[in-house]
Write a structure and sequence with these properties.
It contains 16 helices and 30 strands. It is an alpha/beta fold and 587 residues long. It folds into 3 domains: 5-45 and 69-221, Phosphoenolpyruvate Carboxykinase, domain 1; 225-294 and 380-542, Phosphoenolpyruvate Carboxykinase, domain 3; 295-371, Beta Complex (Phosphoenolpyruvate Carboxykinase, domain 2), CATH 2.170.8.10. The structure holds guanosine-5'-triphosphate, sulfopyruvate and manganese (II) ion.
Length: 587
């Protein structure tokens, strides 16, 4: 099957433990793919959508209890509990293996075991990393084929002697009581049992490219982040790259594919990635980013020709839809898509849609599609060295408190502001939606080690370069007293991106506050936007009373990391608190 002895031995060991009927080494070919699709259509795993309107598109319905990441069942297993940190669920390595191996025993009887060699990152990039996912889910194979570079070339990379992450996955019986997503960073190993959904099952994505990779990145001096990457081309043809981290379902895919407003003649946004960035310091002192993924696993609800036209143009063909609704003529449908709601609609569970059952598409319904189909896909997306990042943008979904945008004063303050990000929870993970929680760097569910060490790692880049990106914080989700979004968002976020680029070039103004540097209305290009002055002022206002309370919450959160918390973070808390009090005295 392979001439790599380590891989061959692992495949044998897994087969002995899980007792599949057949073993299939995935080569990634079209013929193999067609056969898998045929089998999934035959057994009902997939449903064919309208070939005329949506060529080569399929619908998959998950088990209703298996529609999102399960953070409470996701573990980092290390020798020392301190290494996993208070931000992770921890289990000792031996205990973790024992617990999950018991579930894997004999679980593939009657099934085919697929062995998927994959590469995260462009072919030929020194930053790309290999993995092998063993799974009993053909749906996982079909999705991995879109999301990663799978098959022969990935296997060649491994057989050339490069290290690889081992990921073992079984859907098991989809019993939520028998479900675990376990990571063993010290062994470059992932074991996931009992879920067929997204980040729980496509192991190259969150499990490898974030949890395991973040651990490796810390040891090796680079960054693995939950970030989109985009290029902004100005009318002169100059392109500036930025990377932005927002929590799950908080706008990364949308920002990555942004279409500027009509007033922004000559401006273009180029998509490099929509979810994950791997960043390395270049010899020039700049941070260079690659997108380890090859596809998008994006949120369907809210996606339309108005909000995200590039995404809609990406989606119409060769896509797998998971848990969306379907119209009478076999088109995928979700809340927020263009046009009126059809009278006849099948919901995500396959029932005739009845509003009493909730939305027709699950709020975390998704599409899987190749990035190469995106009209704004950057011609730099596959270059081996990546793209140089001029700005980091962090943000969350906050109906109150956080202003539309601010710039950090320096690197230490930027790391603090990113670590202090809070956001309302979304349907991307099971649990209550709309609860404000701290989500540092949008990595709360994905950092494979102690956050205190992670922040120290981020801070350490200052010692290694004086050309680091400027750091910004944004919030597209402020609401007014009636619960309506105050900022139009989507394409209009270009107005904030433009200010950010101008700040990087030193050509735009800002006012200093204890929280950071904030534009005034006059500093933002709001041409053609129907937004009254009072709303703009409210979006950019810092209320010291509210921020004193916010700083208390931030301090309490950081306090939970004890002595391991870097001193530079404590200094930022003290400075901001002091300056807020001073500003109140001055007022
Ligand atoms: P993950 O794939 O879970 O990591 O999500 P993401 O961060 O890529 O979020 P995505 O761009 O898919 O957006 C999630 C939801 O937020 C969708 O319903 C979008 O329509 C909505 N959304 C995105 N950008 C904006 C914005 O600027 N304003 C508002 N109001 N909603 C937005
Ligand atoms: C996220 O939740 O951040 C996602 C979807 O991108 S999943 O692949 O399920 O993690
Ligand atoms: Mn994501």
């Amino acid at each position: 099957m392979t001439n790599n002895p380590e891989l061959a031995a692992w495949i044998d060991a897994v087969a002995a433990a899980t007792t599949p009927d057949k073993i299939h080494l995935v080569d990634g070919s079209d013929a193999e793919h067609d056969k898998l699709i045929e089998e999934m259509l035959a057994d009902g795993t997939l449903e064919k959508l309208n070939e005329k309107t949506h060529p080569n598109c399929f619908l998959h319905r998950s088990d209703p209890s298996d529609v999102a990441r399960v953070e409470h069942l996701t573990f980092v297993c290390t020798e020392s509990e301190e290494d996993a940190g208070p931000n992770n669920n921890w289990m000792a390595t031996d205990e973790g293996h024992a617990k999950i191996d018991a579930l894997f025993a004999g679980c593939m009887t009657g099934r085919t075991m697929y062995v998927i060699p994959y590469l995260m990152g462009p072919y030929g990039s020194p930053f790309s990393r290999a993995g092998v996912e063993i799974t009993d889910s053909p749906y996982v194979v079909a999705n991995m084929r879109i999301m990663a570079r799978i098959g022969r070339r990935a296997l060649d990379h491994i057989e050339a002697g490069n290290s690889f992450v081992r990921g073992l996955h079984s859907v098991g019986d989809l019993d939520p009581e028998r479900r675990f997503i376990m990571h063993f960073p010290e062994e470059l190993m992932i074991k996931s049992f009992g879920s067929g959904y997204g980040g729980n099952a496509l192991l190259g994505k969150k499990c490898h490219a974030l949890r395991i990779a973040s651990w490796q990145a810390r040891t090796e001096g680079w960054l693995a982040e939950h970030m989109l990457i985009l290029g902004i081309e100005d009318p002169s043809g100059k392109t500036t790259y930025v990377a932005a981290a927002f929590p799950s379902a908080c706008g990364k895919t949308n920002l990555a594919m942004l279409v500027p407003p009509a007033e922004f003649k000559g401006w273009k946004v180029w998509t490099v990635g929509d979810d994950i960035a791997w960043l390395h310091l270049g010899e020039d002192g700049r941070l260079w980013a690659i997108n380890p993924e090859a596809g998008f696993f994006g949120v369907a609800p809210g996606t339309s020709l108005t909000t995200n036209p590039n995404c809609m143009k990406t989606l119409g063909r060769n896509a797998i839809y998971t848990n969306v609704g379907v119209t009478a003529d076999g088109a995928p449908w979700w809340e927020g898509i263009d046009g009126p709601k059809p009278s006849e609609l099948i919901d995500w569970q396959g029932r005739p849609h009845d509003a009493a059952n909730g939305p027709a598409a699950h709020p975390n319904s998704r599409f899987t599609v190749s990035a190469s189909q995106c009209p704004s896909y950057s011609d730099q997306a596959n270059v081996p060295q990546g793209v140089p990042i001029s700005a980091f943008i962090f943000g969350g979904r906050r109906s109150a408190v956080a202003p539309l945008v601010f710039e950090a004063l320096d690197w230490d303050h930027g790391v603090f502001a990113a670590a202090a990000v809070a956001s309302e929870t979304t349907a991307a993970a099971t649990g209550q939606v709309g609860q404000v929680r701290r989500d540092p760097m949008a990595m709360k569910p994905f950092c494979g080690y102690n956050f205190a060490d992670y922040w120290a790692h981020w801070l350490s880049f200052k010692e290694r370069s004086d050309k680091l990106p400027k750091v910004f914080h944004v919030n597209w989700f402020r609401k007014d007293a009636d619960g309506n979004f105050m900022w139009p968002g989507f394409g209009d976020n270009m107005r904030v991106l433009k200010w950010i680029i101008e700040r990087c070039e030193g050509s735009s103004d800002a006012v200093k506050t204890p929280i950071g540097l904030i534009p005034q209305g006059k500093d933002l290009d709001l041409s053609g936007l129907d937004l009254n002055e009072a709303t703009v002022a409210a979006l950019l206002a810092i209320d010291p009373k509210i921020w004193r309370t916010e700083m208390e919450a931030i301090e309490e959160y950081f306090g939970s990391f004890g002595d391991r918390l870097p001193g530079a973070i404590v200094e930022q808390i003290e400075r901001i608190k002091r300056e807020i009090i001073e500003s109140q005295k001055a007022a």
